[in-house]
Amino acid sequence: MAGRLGQATWLEYLTGSLESGAAFYRRLAGWEIAEGEGAASARQLLATADGEAVASLLDTTGMLCPMGRTIPTKWEVYLQVDDLDARLERARAAGGEVIDGPREAIGGARLAVVADPTGCPVGLWEGEGFAGRESVGAPGTPVWFELMSMDTRASRDFYQAVLDFDYQGMPGSESEPGGEPGYFTNAGGQEATSGLCSAKEWFPAGTSSFWRWYLAVDSMEEAVAVVREMGGKVLDGPMDSPFGIVATIEDPDGATLQILEGPRG
């Protein structure tokens, strides 16, 4: 297993407009995107940054979600597990539902997607021959992952039970009744690999919890220009944060993500 249990180790882009999505992320992230050796599907492309695999892009044309609806264009986040079958049993026991898999993934890895008790889908990834990405930080790579939760307590209980997360409140993030932190990390200090944000007050009633990720960019100004030139939208920002300049964007086919220009040394 590459990385720690629960570390976000893989991304999958689901789209009915595969070529459009590939063109956009080639420009924005600088990814090489092509048919990958060991791909689990002929309709799957592999994205690499400086030779390291970071994501797959899957053509969902004609595919339906478990509820029978067309699958929207979106990003799915996969968290590393040591034993997929055992962790799926934990997920069921903690009130989750398996909505996809288990099935073979790229390079012989195994994956499944579960819905947590808030209805949020999250992928679980067991990498044997193919363990997923290993490095972060350079432009074109994922640098952070977080769960935007509409029910913080339910989310915390689920991920603690399934993936042994040891949630730590972020100092200065008090926003809940009684001084409860509004933001948690899944471990303390440098061990943290993802965040949990109390997001109920930020979104309309009925919004489902969701995972989102941050793409490192070398220049926010240039990245925003590419987004707009390629037909995407800037939904929020750019704005300063303790971690750099951040913006929320939507690609031309409707998938959202964060882009981050880190602090200059």
TrEMBL record:
Residues 7-127, 141-262 form the VOC domain. It comes from the Bacteria. It holds the Pfam family Glyoxalase_6. InterPro entries: Anthracycline_SecMetBiosynth, Glyas_Bleomycin-R_OHBP_Dase, Glyas_Fos-R_dOase_dom, Glyoxalase_6, VOC_core. This is VOC family protein. It comes from Brachybacterium equifaecis.
